[in-house]
Amino acid sequence: MTKPKKSELIPSTVDKENPATWLKYTKNSCKFCASTCCTMPIEVRWEDLVNLNLVTEDDLVSPLKTTIAKLKKEKVITAYRKESGLFALKQTDEGKCRYLINNRCIVYKKRPLVCRAFPLEMGWRHGYCPQKPI
Ligand code: SF4
Ligand code: SF4
Question: Within this chain, do residues 102 and 134 fall inside the same structural domain, yes or no?
Fold first, then answer.
């Protein structure tokens, strides 16, 4: 009998909308995961938009309201939350981050803070994440 691959041992009962079903994160978790966290809506800071070149030099000197309207029109963001100062990045029609290509983050070195801090310091359940087999 063939020994199952480690990825096959990951239960498929995880519901990304329900943190109670999430699995404990370890340093190897991402190796066997279909990047489920990159299919969840993310909110990013102004600095992240700058790092990702999603805002132009004109945007840097324009009133925030103008830039927000422009980013919404360009389908870069869906919302701005004044209380937190965070921008909700628009997902693709397939429901994933615009930077997730072939299960890889194409802006990994410049990825937003939330992506760096999830799931140990940010997220609905610290130390747990919605892992799914590749
Ligand atoms: S859901 Fe968890 S294991 Fe999967 S890529 Fe995101 S952080 Fe890594
Ligand atoms: S920026 Fe990269 S790490 Fe962050 S959600 Fe998008 S693909 Fe995932």
Answer: yes
Q: Is 10 or 36 the better-scoring residue by pLDDT?
A: 36
Q: Is the CB of 99 under 6 A from ligand 2?
A: yes
Contact 87 CB / ligand 1 (< 6 Å)? no
Domain holding 68, by residue range, is 43-90
Q: Across-strand partners of 88? A: 43, 79
Q: Are 9 and 109 in contact (CB under 8 A)?
A: no
The answer to whether residue 16 is domain-embedded is no
- Ligand 1 binding pocket includes 128 (Cβ within 6 Å): no
pTM, entire model: 0.88
Q: What is the pLDDT of residues 93-122, one digit of tens each?
A: 999 999 999 999 999 999 999 999 999 999
